[in-house]
Write a structure and sequence with these properties.
The complex is a heterodimer of chains A (178) and B (179).
Chain A lengths: L30 H46 L2 H8 L2 H7 L2 H7 L2 H12 L1 H9 L4 H25 L21
Chain B lengths: L3 H10 L12 H4 L8 H33 L10 H22 L4 H6 L1 E4 L8 H13 L6 H4 L6 H6 L2 E4 L8 H4 L1
Antiparallel strand pairs in B: 1-2
Chain lengths: 178, 179
Amino acid sequence: MTTPGEQPDEGTGQEVVLVVNQVPSAGATNPISELVGLAAGLVGAVASVIDQTVIAGVNAALDRVVPIAVNVVVDRIDLTKIVLERVDIDAIVARANMDKIIDRVPMVEIANYIIDEIDLPKIIRESTGGIAVDAVNAARLQSLSLDEFINKIADSIIFRRKGRKVESPAGAYSEGDV
Amino acid sequence: MTSFEKFRQQLAAGEVRDLAQVTIPEKAKSKQGQRSGIVTRAIAVAIDISVTIVVMLTNYGLLWLFLLLIAPIHLFEMPDASWFFFAGFVLLWAYWTAAWALSGRTLGNHLMGLQVVDYKGKRLSWPLSALRSIFSMVFPIGLIWVVVSPTNRSLQDTILRTSVVHNWSVTLNDPFVRE
């Protein structure tokens, strides 16, 4: 097969023959199915590109917008009030695992703090006072009731009905501590 | 329930009850600051007199031992009973005077939870304390007046305007400490 543009060189009289490989005939594969496959691949690629770029873009946009939006919303509502009104806090506390909480609470420090605050050593010091306090208190209480008994008898003998005026003198205990 | 914050506020405002009150039996709490009756006071006096007698006997024994060491025993004579009585009298007078003027409590008072105060509820002055002391000793029967007195006062208390009040907690709530 000779190309039409190549004229034979008249001077030499030689002929150049161009040999071209024959294009594979259409009978081996269907060009339509090939086209469809190509199109499908292209669509897949485009889809994945869209998938990655667009969704990533949307995610990034949401990441930026949502916190702002939520903040704006939360700023406008009283969350504490809503929780107080609508949430059963007792039920939540009832379900909480107190043991774990208590495990994390510094109990010994708190106990020491309480002892310091109420001045427990002072109370102990004053309650014992170097004497067996129970025995002393028992004796005092005994004599106290004997006092009242005798006073009652004396009052009835002399027909005193108003009772005795035994309040402390002014100033002794009037400074708000009894 | 009192939180720490609330407790501190009350403490600062002076609203907290005396913490030593915790140690006083419930029945006696209402009696704090009230004038005592005859039995308690008589027991306190008896304890004081017993203490004086023990001290006098101890002194007598020590004196006897001392004289035994430095002199033949036949030279030692027991002092006249009246002198012995007089010495005990002076000792008790000095003891009561000092105790009432210093803390308001003798040993007997302390054991029975009593305190001697003047008409303002304050510590007795030394002269008043000495006067009350000698009055109580020369006229001990005046204590009986507590039984009939409408204000639980002995004759001495009525005349000298003193009171013997219940105060079971020793240091806190003590008018003498606050002075």
